[in-house]
Specification:
The chain is an alpha+beta fold. It contains 21 helices and 11 strands. The structure holds adenosine-5'-triphosphate (ATP) and magnesium ion (MG). Magnesium ion binds next to loops.
């Protein structure tokens, strides 16, 4: 069977970049191929008959960076209506290349037998790759699948390419169809962007092309200084959730709710975003507090939100308080435990929390510095009680 590597793998190979995935297309039955490979070389195969794809889990002897290879049957796609998921049929490699997003992603290299190494370039992708051009394959492309506009920007910025003028010209007509994309699909595109080292430039470019406000008006007025930090070297900020926080922390809690109606954030991210927005709005409240008061104030906020904000706030005093909370104060606990209080014969109840908090505050504010001093304070408290 004719077998090809296609898409991003060929693009990155020709650019001399590291491959992060390896897309294999077979002209024929991918499941039969997977089964034949595993019976000849070992390993195991799982098949998705509905999609005509197989995953070959490689035998130990063939494992490299890859644990498994995806084998996919060449197919053609049609779109019943704009922004619909495509209707898929078995096809030839030529069909499979024509269903793709951009010419630079529509290259294939053949792998089987004497054809090994033949470049298949039906759509002049090699030339566009050479010239640094992002170009769609036909004029309905963005209407069929509006996520491609976001992908175009991602590749443009990632590789320092240009979206071809005639491709840019197709954006206005397709832009309204972004509304038809499901929350999951549009959020996925934004997630992919936020994972890129140059995420901020990508967002700026999207905004320039008016592709953020169509997702939600709240997305377009992003806070440049906070976002700029996302390009910094800080490891904690180099992931998509941190970047979502940096992007949205200046919004009101209510606005995050509106945005969530469009994007359906995962529950944990939504909670963190709320916390970050609230913390950002109330950040000056930590100024002039005693450490124990800072702890009481910050305790209810998410640690992830605090972590990102501690790096993103501009005010150096607030920054240093948040940082001390994270590295030091948050971990402070009195030596006495609930167990000890029970031994002293205090009946379990809200009193426990009150006493333990009082002891913790004493440590935080430097009122006690040794276990003996804590004991003394505790005795004092118990006598009064
Ligand atoms: P990346 O380096 O970001 O992974 P990639 O090109 O490998 O880039 P994938 O999302 O992994 O991108 O998709 C693999 C291939 O599938 C693409 O190269 C492209 O040919 C095709 N493809 C992906 N998404 C679309 C789409 N929305 N419309 C058409 N073709 C697509
Ligand atoms: Mg890929």
């Amino acid at each position: 069977m004719p077998l090809y590597i296609v898409g991003g793998s060929v693009r990155d190979l020709l650019l001399g970049r590291r491959l992060n995935d390896f897309d294999l297309i077979v002209e024929g039955d991918a499941i039969a191929l997977g089964r034949a490979l595993s019976s000849k070389y070992g390993g195991a195969v799982t098949a998705h008959t509905k999609f005509g794809t197989a995953k070959w889990f490689l035998p130990e002897s063939l494992k490299t960076d890859h644990q498994a290879l995806d084998l996919i049957s060449a197919r053609s796609e049609t779109y019943k209506y704009p922004a619909a998921l495509p209707t898929v049929k078995r096809g030839r490699i030529a069909d499979d290349l024509r269903r793709r997003d951009f010419t630079i992603n529509a290259l294939a290299v053949r792998l089987d037998g004497s054809h090994f190494g033949e470049l298949r370039d039906d759509l002049k992708g090699a030339e566009d790759l050479q010239q640094g051009m992002i170009r769609v394959l036909h004029s309905r492309s963005f209407i069929d699948d509006p996520t491609r506009m976001y992908r175009a920007v991602r590749y443009e910025v990632r590789y320092g390419f240009k979206i071809a003028e005639d491709t840019i010209a197709l954006i206005p007509e397709a832009r309204p169809f972004v509304e038809k994309l499901s929350a999951q699909r549009i959020r996925h595109e934004l997630d992919l962007i936020l994972e890129e080292p140059n995420a901020v430039s990508m967002l700026k470019r999207l905004d320039e092309l008016d592709l953020l406000s169509v997702v939600h008006p709240m997305l377009s007025n992003f806070h440049q200084t906070n976002l700029a930090i996302a390009t910094s070297e800080e490891a904690v900020l180099q992931n998509r959730n941190s970047r979502w926080i940096l992007w949205l922390m200046h919004l009101k809690a209510q606005d995050i709710e509106f945005l969530n109606e469009r994007l359906h954030f995962p529950a944990d991210l939504l909670k963190t975003l709320h916390s970050a927005a609230l913390l950002n709005a109330n950040r000056t409240a930590v100024l002039g507090l005693k450490p124990s008061e800072v702890v009481e104030f910050l305790e209810s906020y998410s640690i992830k939100a605090l972590e990102v904000l501690s790096m993103a706030v501009e005010d150096v005093e607030i920054k240093s308080i948040l940082t001390r909370y994270l590295v030091e104060w948050w971990h402070v606990k009195p030596k006495t435990t609930g167990h000890d209080l029970k031994k002293y014969g205090i009946p379990p109840g809200p009193k426990y929390t009150e006493i333990l908090r009082r002891l913790r505050a004493a440590w935080l504010d430097g009122e006690v510095k040794t276990e003996a001093e804590e004991k003394a304070l505790l005795n004092n408290l118990l006598e009064k009680a």
